[in-house]
Amino acid sequence: MAAPMQNAENHARYVPGFHFITGSLTIAVLVWSVKRAIILQTGDAVLLALMAVALLGQFWYTRAFPLAVQDRLIRLEERLRLARLLPAELQGRLDEFTADQLIGMRFASDAELPALAKKVLDENLATRKGIKEQIKTWRPDYMRA
């Protein structure tokens, strides 16, 4: 069965086992262990609560670090794509794009990217979501982290 056509509304990626099951269990362990530490006030209970905080940190950074690397790669890919597709009058403005702007434009087709890039710079569109909403011909990315 083919994946549904990707667009601005459905492009976010959720991995149920990670986001919902592991995330919920991590939060449940944190709540339970903190409650237990407050009630029992023992060294073991406090240590367990600290371990739960560490587990929550691991859960968070296990997702945050790969996303940061992915954003860096997207920024590089989009700069290379813009260098290839932008007209000469916009080539000198490549350094004006923020990381969020580059990441927001990544879903635009090659045909619409130059006009979108000009609009992003001229109107100072800054948010990823706002830029994605401007895209008319969506270029899907099924290889996100």
Short summary:
The protein has six helices and no strands.
Explain this structure.
There is one protein chain. With 145 residues, the protein is mainly alpha-helical. The protein has one domain. It is 66% helix and 0% strand. The chain is built from six helices and no strands. It has helices spanning 16-40, 43-85, 88-91, 99-105, 113-122, 128-134. α1 (16-40) runs antiparallel to α2 (43-85), α2 (43-85) crosses α4 and α4 (99-105) runs parallel beside α6 (128-134). The mean pLDDT is 93.
The Rg value, from CA coordinates, equals 21 Å
Taking the sheet with the most strands, its summary is: none
The string of secondary-structure elements, in order, is: HHHHHH
**Strand fraction:** under 5%
Structural class given helices, strands, pairing? mainly alpha
Q: What is the rounded distance between the termini?
A: 21 Å
Overall shape: it is elongated
Low-confidence stretches: none
Number of strands: 0
Number of domains: 1
The DSSP helix count reads 6
Mean pLDDT: 93
Amount of helix: 55-70%
